[in-house]
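User: I'm writing a short report section on ligand binding and want a predicted complex to refer to. Could you take this sequence and flavin-adenine dinucleotide and write out the structure as tokens? A short remark afterwards would be nice.
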Amino acid sequence: MGNIKGFLEYDRVDAPVVPEQERICNFQEFHGRLSKEEQQKQAARCMNCGVPFCQAGMMIAGMASGCPLHNLVPELNELVEGGNLDLAYRRLSITHSFPEFTSRVCPALCEKACTCGYHQEAVSTKENEKAIIEYAFSEGLVKELTPKIRTGKKVAVVGSGPSGLAAAQLLNSRGHNVTVFERSDRVGGLLRYGIPNMKLDKSVIDRRVKLMEEAGIEFRTNVNVCGAASGNEASKGSGNEASKESGNAELKKSGNTSSKIFGNASGNAVGSISADELRKEYDAIVLCCGASHPRDINAPGRDTEGIYFAVDFLGSVTKALLDNDFDKTSAGVKDIENQVKDKDVIVIGGGDTGNDCVGTCIRLGAKSVTQLEMMPCPPTERLATNPWPEWPRVLKTDYGQEEAIYKFGSDPRVYQTTVKEFISSGKKEKHLKEVVLVSLESKKDEKTGRMMMVPVEGSEKTVPAQLVLIAAGFLGSERYVTDGFGVELDARTNVKTAPGSYAAFSSANAATTTATTDAVATKATSDSINTAATNTDTAATKATAKIYTAGDMHRGQSLVVWAIAEGRNAAREVDRDLMGYTNL
Ligand SMILES: Cc1cc2nc3c(=O)[nH]c(=O)nc-3n(C[C@H](O)[C@H](O)[C@H](O)COP(=O)(O)OP(=O)(O)OC[C@H]3O[C@@H](n4cnc5c(N)ncnc54)[C@H](O)[C@@H]3O)c2cc1C
Ligand code: SF4
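Assistant: Sure. The structure tokens for the complex follow:
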């Protein structure tokens, strides 16, 4: 701690952002950076307190508090303050795989638990993290570890979101041969086709993936593991199995122009590979397929055209932008824009995904955007029942909402409200014309004693809407993958494991345990990694590759930082099982 009075001398200053009127004209990132000197002052605000909750990453009152990766926050802040960004990068790399992602999109759990934030503004740890990693990239310090010796073990990672990438990175660095299977046309999961470009520029993902490829990781895109192969026109737009499972009638229709527009972010011919084929070919399989099965809205008129799931919409917009080099005049981008321009948009869901839809619709020229939230408006300050360092359950006005306030003059969020009915134009094409909204109130369910949000009789209101985006949360993993691998699910349809473990519960895994234990005993006595690999490379282990899981598929829809933490932990368990010990 270089300056023990830093938090008294300096106020928190955040990096500049591009003003709303400019940023809504494009899809570029809008968060700038502080100068090196100012960043040093901001880091000097760290108190190096005795109990740094910022790096605890523990659950308090059911919510995470502090960094799940256990980044060495006070140490990092001290190094940034002293201008020693080289060492800061090396320290950060001990705990973190991809700081360039979290320093853009993380809700900064560290800052919510910062001791300085108890009395005044928290230390800007997230921006300090960005300063470290962007410095490291600009100086050519960021390299993926290319192992000198390979173990001879093959690991398949299914899904290339942050959890899959993190697992692949560590397993490759250990010397295993890693192949990442991805059903989309590009790598990144929701980093790519969920989080909009203005929050995370997609070149940031490409930059990292290139390094990972150079270090020996193989990425196989357009491969739908356990799914059906598709390649003809009619099946394009159907690659998102979640949409098919959720009963979104419009997206199911082939040959329907609008369904192609907001259907499948991949859109390319998709090949497939079965669970059995993977189990034969690989020594371990890590399922990192996310939790993208969306929650639907069951209201009359749901099959009206013009109603989409948020992730289908956001992914399609990003794909159109990437395919057309961000050229707003291109036919691909124009097609997307025409679905939104001059339309009254209703976003169902008041959370972060809904906010991304608001910001995206404004950029695409929507006439109005309304964001519906079932729950009451949260308080502006922590309640006594929600003390520091718990996650603060307070009102947050995010970038999309700020932009709506600028553009339309009011906050787009309407609380305690949902859609009661979708009304079509009545014409042949059945396009959405209006929605009936209804207010909700909290009432006790006499049977269960639980509080529920129920409609207020007589509160119905009909409003114009030509586009509805459903951002009402997710219902866990997609069944075709979990069925394909025969893994057990918990009540929330996440893949089940023992607490603290990432090995999936499945009958196949139980059979594998015996074979793997024998193999590990052989390995543990071997001096050479290569010899161990040869000794254990038996038909028995190959035919019964153990299955692991990480990320949203394991813990339910969550955060990028948690996905990275899970991917890293799963990699350690895989490595221990394959090699008898782990040094990851
Ligand atoms: C719109 C939106 C915005 C978000 N914004 C933020 C944010 O700002 N900050 C934050 O921290 N978190 C955010 N999140 C949450 C965060 O993106 C996720 O928690 C995180 O991406 C989960 O990572 P994952 O690796 O577990 O899964 P995912 O990122 O979902 O990746 C899963 C991958 O598996 C692939 N896949 C699935 N099935 C198969 C198959 N059968 N074969 C091959 N590949 C398959 C999918 O195509 C996908 O690429 C957001 C989520 C959404 C939906
Ligand atoms: S990953 Fe997120 S929680 Fe962890 S230090 Fe960075 S910003 Fe904070």
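A remark for your report: The CA atoms of residues 144 and 212 lie 6 Å apart. Residues 307-470 form a domain with the FAD/NAD(P)-binding domain fold (CATH 3.50.50.60).
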